[in-house]
């Protein structure tokens, strides 16, 4: 079967095998790896280096003749430039890591190229001058000129003493990341530094095929086997030079490179179409979900929901679309649109009156510190119109906010006790991550002061922009304290469901409030206690809050089931893509 037929016959598998990334990129498609197309690219490269991509021609000059010319050129360079080969010549039987066709030959990498090695060297950088290329610029198959770094003309002359890379050479990364490679196609001079080596081929015409070979899985596996290091794996030049590589006849190399370029262009088209389709699908989902949040009343909401329900199976087919559905349901919940209002419910205003009276008593008894009053919520600060029976209040009106333990205090001459405590990493949006609980020593008399009790809210002070104001409820009976980067919020009355407050604080409205109120620096943001006190919160009647939370749990369970179904289907597609590539290779 030709590769073109393999692509066409299994188009659905290549384009539908998707993998969700752990970190989000730009747009909905930025959160997804096109796994099937990635596997297809890997397959094309592997078939190329195994001699299975184009037919062999018995009239081609064998690769052994190419190696003879390589040897002559190598000796000439040694005579003229004093260059000596450090790679051994013999290749042993167990070193041949793939089967190759007739007329192909093996040779060690170090016998094919001069290594211009600038690893471990870092020049003094300037704002402009001669371009500097490091491992950060070398990608898989191309050179990315970002980030832009430069050295001066004077430094360039003294710096480039190990050799000058030129067009057609291959740049290769030896660490962080290991194994990226690209052919040099840059105009003008440039310097080389940091975790990069230049392969300057004795016979430059082999460069396009050698790039294919370096990026293909068989060679990458050799790199992995010979690499060292735990956190950042790398390979020594002495090991790299000894890796055996394969060379087809030169005429076959030309045919292979041409076919790879043709098929990679087809992969590019598939990728663009898939990404465009994913983005269009997500825009459609978000537009239709927007009709729900824009509904003016329960009747309009029911009509819009019925319209979406008719196409549920085609709309919610990606994890991003299910996430959008979940966010829409959350928004409907906190706006009072998820369940109908009951005119017989006690209005939230009565609840707030009772809490205000209880708070006054607690202040009088010294159990809560009296705070300087904050200004009331203005109409501009109210993000939406409340249903009948609901009320706006400040977060501090219903919650006693307390700070946590400050690390690094001078605690000499005090009796200390070691306690577990919660950090920002433990407090996620709507849940706790208790995989790692750290401990800290505090004065024994402060143990009760810093205790987090069941039902307390935990709110993060800062971190990256999406971390600020992250809220969850402590739901355990065992002792734990909170660090000062995690605020503790304790209910003043018992009538406000802490899980309702958790839900509202994690809604788009509170997140927008914290984004506007927080102090932001590069990629970081934080809020202070006063800003948290002043966060506007929508309070429904108590009985309605219970109904909303019950409905919310039903919808969240549905979303989880949808996600599980999608993940299961995706896993099947991944296995199919793997099976197709394995079958094609073997």
Structure, described:
Belongs to the type-I restriction system S methylase family. Residues 56-77 are annotated as: Disordered. Residues 66-77 have a biased composition (Basic and acidic residues). The strands form eight sheets. A four-stranded antiparallel sheet has the order 4-10-7-8, covered by helices on one side. The protein contains 18 helices and 23 strands. The longest helix has 44 residues, at 250-293. It is α+β, with helices and mostly antiparallel strands.
Question: Secondary-structure blueprint of this entry?
Answer:
Blueprint: H1 3-9, H2 11-16, E1 19-20, E2 32-33, H3 35-49, H4 63-81, E3 105-108, E4 113-117, E5 130-133, E6 150-151, H5 153-159, E7 170-174, E8 178-183, E9 190-192, E10 196-201, H6 207-215, H7 217-226, H8 237-240, E11 244-247, H9 250-293, H10 298-309, H11 312-315, H12 319-334, H13 348-364, E12 391-394, H14 395-398, E13 399-402, E14 416-422, E15 438-443, E16 457-460, E17 462-463, E18 471-473, E19 481-482, E20 486-491, H15 498-505, H16 508-517, E21 519-521, E22 524-526, H17 529-533, E23 536-539, H18 542-585
Parallel strand pairs: 5-9, 14-19
Antiparallel strand pairs: 1-2, 3-11, 4-10, 5-6, 7-8, 7-10, 12-23, 13-20, 14-15, 16-18, 16-20, 17-22, 21-22
Helix pairs in contact: 3-9, 3-18, 9-10, 9-12, 12-18
């Amino acid at each position: 079967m030709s590769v073109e037929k393999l692509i066409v016959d299994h188009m659905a598998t290549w384009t539908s095998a998707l993998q969700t990334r752990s970190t989000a990129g730009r747009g909905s498609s930025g959160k997804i790896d096109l796994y099937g197309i990635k596997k297809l690219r890997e397959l094309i490269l592997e078939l190329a280096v195994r001699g299975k991509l184009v037919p062999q021609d018995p009239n081609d000059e064998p690769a052994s003749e190419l190696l003879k010319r390589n040897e002559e050129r190598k000796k000439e360079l040694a005579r003229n430039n004093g260059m000596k080969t450090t790679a051994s010549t013999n290749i042993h039987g167990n070193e041949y890591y793939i089967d190759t066709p007739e007329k192909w030959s093996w040779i060690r990498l170090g016998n094919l190229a001069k290594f211009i090695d600038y690893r471990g060297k870092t020049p003094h950088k300037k704002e402009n001058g001669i371009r500097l290329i490091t491992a950060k610029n070398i990608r898989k198959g191309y050179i990315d000129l970002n980030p832009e770094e430069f050295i001066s003309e004077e430094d360039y002359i003294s710096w480039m003493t190990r050799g000058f890379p030129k067009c057609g050479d291959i740049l290769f990364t030896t660490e962080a990341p290991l194994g990226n490679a690209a052919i040099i196609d840059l105009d003008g001079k440039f310097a080389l530094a940091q975790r990069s080596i230049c392969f300057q081929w004795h016979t430059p015409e082999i460069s396009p095929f050698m790039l294919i070979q370096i990026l293909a899985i068989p060679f990458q596996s050799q790199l992995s086997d010979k690499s060292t290091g735990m956190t950042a794996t790398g390979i020594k030049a002495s090991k790299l030079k000894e890796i055996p590589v394969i060379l087809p006849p030169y005429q076959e190399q030309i045919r292979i490179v041409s076919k790879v370029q043709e098929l990679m262009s087809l992969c590019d088209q598939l990728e663009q179409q898939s990404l465009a389709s994913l983005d269009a699908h997500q825009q459609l989902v978000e537009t239709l979900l927007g009709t729900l949040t824009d509904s003016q009343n329960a009747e309009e909401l029911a009509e819009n929901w019925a319209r979406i329900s008719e196409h549920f199976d085609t709309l919610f087919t990606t994890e991003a679309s299910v996430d959008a559905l979940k966010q829409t349901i959350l928004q409907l919940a906190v706006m009072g649109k998820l369940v109908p209002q009951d005119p017989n419910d006690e209005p939230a205003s009565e609840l707030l009156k009772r809490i205000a009276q209880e708070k006054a008593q607690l202040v009088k008894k010294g159990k809560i510190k009296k705070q300087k009053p904050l200004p009331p919520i203005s109409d501009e600060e109210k993000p939406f119109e409340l249903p009948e029976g609901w009320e706006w209040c400040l977060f501090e009106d219903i919650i006693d906010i307390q700070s946590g333990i400050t690390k690094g205090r001078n605690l000499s001459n005090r009796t200390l006790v070691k306690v577990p405590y919660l950090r920002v990493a433990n407090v996620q949006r709507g849940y706790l991550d208790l995989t790692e609980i750290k401990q800290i020593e505090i004065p024994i008399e402060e143990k009760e002061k810093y205790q987090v009790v069941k039902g307390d809210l935990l709110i993060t002070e800062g971190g990256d922009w999406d971390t600020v104001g992250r809220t969850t409820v402590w739901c355990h009976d065992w002792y734990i304290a909170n660090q000062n980067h995690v605020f503790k919020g304790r209910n003043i009355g018992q009538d406000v469901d802490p899980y309702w407050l958790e839900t509202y604080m994690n809604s788009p409205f509170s997140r927008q409030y914290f984004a506007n109120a927080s102090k932001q620096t590069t990629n970081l943001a934080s809020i202070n206690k006063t800003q948290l006190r002043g966060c506007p919160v929508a309070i429904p009647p108590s009985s309605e809050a219970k109904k909303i939370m019950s409905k919310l749990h039903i919808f969240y369970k549905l979303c989880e089931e949808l996600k599980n179904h999608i993940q299961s289907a995706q896993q099947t597609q991944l296995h199919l893509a793997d099976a197709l590539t394995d079958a094609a290779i073997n």
